Request: fold
Amino acid sequence: MPANEPETQAEILEEAREITLAELTRACRVHADWVMELVQEGVIEPVTPNGPQWRFTSTTIVRIQKARRLQHDLGVNLPGIALALQLLDRIDALEQRLRAAPAVTTSHDETE
Reply:
């Protein structure tokens, strides 16, 4: 890849590093104003909220893409996006707990 081309989304995610607001907007093809609205709504959170420049984890790209699809495809407003993503996070956490839980087998002793 030539040095003057921007990093691709896959490269940013593979590196699992912190990215700037400019890198985030470029990777997601969104405006900085919309990202700031997502921060205000609690959809995403900068790693350095009080620093001179916001930095985000590279996994924020996936979250912004989900938010963008909810808004674009379903017409969901920002509070709705925040709620939907919160519920999706809870579902993911519950699914992880189920996968991590030991398999429960039930056997009925018919001689009781």
Confidence is low (pLDDT under 50) at residues 1-10. The first strand starts at residue 18 and ends at 20. The beta strands are 18-20, 55-57.
